[in-house]
Amino acid sequence: MTTASVVVHPNPDVLAESVAARLATRIADAQAARGQASVVLTGGRIAAKFHAALCQSPVRHAVDWSRVDFWWGDERFLPTGDPDRNETQARESLLDHLPVDPDRVHPMPGSDGPAGDDPEAAAADYARRLADHASGDDIVPRFDVVMLGVGEDAHVASLFPRQPATYEERPVVGVRGAPKPPPHRISLTFPTINLADEVWLIAAGSGKADAVALAMSKPGPVQAPAAGVHGVSHTRWLLDRAAAAALPARFRSLRR
Ligand SMILES: O=C1O[C@H](COP(=O)(O)O)[C@@H](O)[C@H](O)[C@H]1O
């Protein structure tokens, strides 16, 4: 049975430390059980903060980083190395500082990649890479953790409200006309994200408060994509107090 939880932290720094420690612990648990782990990284501002926290966290020593597969939930479809790519930012803030296995780092293609400047073709390339790492009859790996930032409009990954990608049944989708720059993106879709063991929605700041409250009021996933994701075992909302400010009082356990 799937479960859900909401944890409210006093500020973005504590949120980042908490996410970093949780992630290292979750990976260590997966490695203890299966010898390896797979995580899906998010982009955005809160990712940069918890990446930095993880690089300093003592708990990072509980993980064998060479036995972790790193995937991305979405990518801004720009040339490799562009500073606005989620991959570039994750390498600079996290992966370049840990002893990861380069063969286990799976960035989404850039617009200068083998599929060319076509986000749909690049998405199909990434779907093939996911299929190559899936088990049995699955077409994507069953990730241990998918981490997702939450946009002010309640988007997650590059699944934006009322956009065609929110209806997509293929595992990865090319996005054109995203309301947040850049307009061309690649994203995992709901069916792929929702096969993960755990899904973590991470949000900080007052700008996210309405989106978090909307998503948790159980609207449809087309209206609020953050409402359309869940882990097979657990869905975790990890918030700072400002992002939780519009939630009903019962969710705001922290009162300091
Ligand atoms: O563009 C994106 O934005 C979201 C949210 O970013 P934030 O800076 O508002 O936290 C992010 O989750 C997504 O991965 C990224 O491509």
TrEMBL record:
The keyword Hydrolase applies. Keywords: Hydrolase. Belongs to the glucosamine/galactosamine-6-phosphate isomerase family. 6-phosphogluconolactonase subfamily. Hydrolysis of 6-phosphogluconolactone to 6-phosphogluconate. Residues 98-120 are annotated as: Disordered. It catalyses: 6-phospho-D-glucono-1,5-lactone + H2O = 6-phospho-D-gluconate + H(+). Pathway: Carbohydrate degradation; pentose phosphate pathway; D-ribulose 5-phosphate from D-glucose 6-phosphate (oxidative stage): step 2/3. NCBIfam families: pgl. InterPro entries: 6-phosphogluconolactonase_DevB (IPR005900), 6PGL (IPR039104), Glc/Gal-6P_isomerase (IPR006148), NagB/RpiA_transferase-like (IPR037171). It comes from the Bacteria. GO terms for molecular function: 6-phosphogluconolactonase activity. GO terms for biological process: carbohydrate metabolic process; pentose-phosphate shunt. Its EC number is 3.1.1.31. This is 6-phosphogluconolactonase. Residues 11-237 form the Glucosamine/galactosamine-6-phosphate isomerase domain.
